[in-house]
Amino acid sequence: MTAYRDQYASLFNEGQNVVVMGISNDPVSELQSWLKDADFPFVFASDADNDGATYTAFGGGLRGNNMVDSRAVIVVGPDGRVAGVIPQFNQADPMAYEQLGAMVDRVTPAPAQQ
């Protein structure tokens, strides 16, 4: 997730008008500690107590064991609607960032070049 954090500005247009949320079955306390320690500029959500209900409400699909997919990512556009769900974000794959960047670009234009 650190590569994800480090590419935040270029991929997410400095976070303007877009919410990028990682969601997992990890407990809230674990996610809070991780976010604080690593200084991530995006949101993490836990579905540990909801049996996948939170993730499915955002349009994600659960694995056979009713768990959220590994490193699932949800993009919410400026209009508050879900722009897309990436069920398994592979942070080591450059194509994952292209897919995520394209999803963000669909809902908010990149800042004008000066």
Describe this structure in words.
This protein has 114 residues and is an alpha+beta fold. The chain has one domain: Glutaredoxin (3-Layer(aba) Sandwich), CATH 3.40.30. It is 34% helix and 18% strand. It has a 4-stranded mixed sheet. Helix 3 links the parallel strand 1 (19-24) and strand 2 (43-46). The longest helix is centred in the last third of the chain and has 14 residues, at 94-107.
Distance between the termini: 31 Å
How many domains? The number is: 1
CATH level-two architecture:
3-Layer(aba) Sandwich
In N-to-C order, the SSE pattern is HHEHEHEEH
The counted number of beta strands is 4
Mean pLDDT across the residues is 76
**SS element count, helices:** 5
Proportion of residues in extended strands: 15-25%
> For this structure, what is the CATH class?
Alpha Beta
Give a brief outline of the structure.
The chain is of the alpha+beta class and 114 residues long.
Keywords:
Glutaredoxin, alpha+beta, single chain, 114 residues, 4-stranded mixed beta sheet, 5 helices
Q: Would you spell out the secondary-structure blueprint of this structure?
A:
Blueprint (H helix, E strand, L loop, with lengths): L1 H5 L1 H4 L7 E6 L3 H11 L4 E4 L6 H5 L14 E5 L5 E5 L7 H14 L7
Parallel strand pairs: 1-2
Antiparallel strand pairs: 1-3, 3-4
